[in-house]
Design goal:
Layout: E1 2-10, H1 14-31, E2 38-49, E3 53-63, H2 70-73, E4 81-89, E5 92-99, E6 102-114, E7 134-137, H3 172-175, E8 180-190, H4 196-220, H5 222-225, H6 230-248, H7 271-279
């Protein structure tokens, strides 16, 4: 298991980001969905935590087969999805990811938001994260993949008409006001010999890119969501979820339609083999039922008479 803590500062307040986070996640999910891949929202409903109070619980399916590197694609099914379960008790959230065909793979992200510049070394109140495992991400200067770059989201050129904030300049985290920090403790586990280290490092690199892009967008889109109420952003979230789900379901493999016919097998199969193949959606060639009546064989010739048996002896001593 590989654990890292990420700290991402933004020129916002924690109170403002409660709206910005919901807006950003909904819009980003919709933008990244299409052609049968992306984010499908399965459940989104109110929930109450005994310690953290009222909040929201969501469950999503993330289809991303074409986004995997070749060394991962080599051993995963052609169509698969990641399950995301999230409990949002703002300003504290928990998010968990799992993959149905990889029971030894999991990701857990624990998040807390605070109005500071990332200087709280024990934000979760249990055991401080070792300094070597803490990564402070800068939404202004840290590199992101070229495919995610947009000039409108470049915070060195960004200006907010509604709030007068921006652009960000080098060293902005030291004296910018307002400022908040998103603390994320990420645990990635993939307990498969030969793949564990490479996979866990790869997942953390992906998470780092996602965190940078998402937090940049939350700030760059400030004028789109600033001033919205919680009820308004929830309604926006609901509308975009409908759009996102329709984009994902445009792929018949994700919508419950009949699967593409599979090749048939003609070899002899045990009952256990055949049941296992049926669970995987495979069909087998029809085989004759051994219990069914068949063409009778010709009668066998009679056996010759056996010679008489010697008399039975009731003692074990020789004569």
């Amino acid at each position: 298991m590989l654990m890292k803590e990420y700290r991402i500062c933004m020129p916002l307040t924690v109170e403002e980001y409660q709206i910005g986070q919901l807006y950003m996640i909904s819009k980003h999910s919709c933008e990244q969905s299409g052609g049968g891949e992306g984010v499908e929202v399965v459940r989104n409903e109110p929930d109450t935590h005994p310690e953290h109070g009222p909040g929201q619980v969501t469950e999503k399916r993330i289809y991303l087969s074409s986004k995997l590197p070749s060394w991962v694609s080599a051993f995963v099914p052609r169509i698969f999805y990641v399950t995301e379960k999230a409990w949002n008790f703002y300003p504290y959230t928990i998010t968990e990811y799992s993959v149905s065909f990889l029971p030894k793979f999991s990701i857990r992200i624990e998040t807390r938001f605070e109005n500071n510049n990332g200087d709280n070394n024990n934000v979760f109140g249990d055991t401080p994260t070792p300094a070597a495992s803490v990564s402070c991400l800068d939404i202004l200067s840290d590199p992101i993949p070229d495919k995610h770059y947009k000039e409108s989201e470049d915070l060195s050129r960004w200006m907010s008409d509604k709030t007068g904030r921006g652009p960000l300049v080098e060293g902005w985290r030291k004296d910018n006001r307002p400022i908040m920090c998103s603390y994320k403790r990420v645990e990635c586990k993939f307990e498969v010999y030969g793949f564990q280290g490479k996979t866990e490092e790869f997942v953390h690199r992906c998470i780092r890119d996602i965190l940078l892009v998402g937090h940049r967008q939350a700030v760059a889109w400030l004028d789109e969501w600033h001033g919205m109420t919680l009820e308004e952003v929830r309604e926006y979230e609901r509308k975009l979820q409908e759009q996102t789900n329709s984009k994902v379901k445009s792929n018949p493999n994700n919508s419950g339609s009949s699967p593409v016919p599979r090749p048939m097998f003609s070899r002899s199969l045990s009952v256990t083999d055949e049941r296992a193949l049926k669970k995987m959606g495979l069909t087998t060639a029809a085989m004759p039922d051994p219990s069914a009546p068949s063409t009778p064989l010709p009668p066998l010739p009679p056996l010759p008479p056996l010679p008489p048996l010697p008399p039975l002896r009731l003692h074990s001593t020789p004569e």
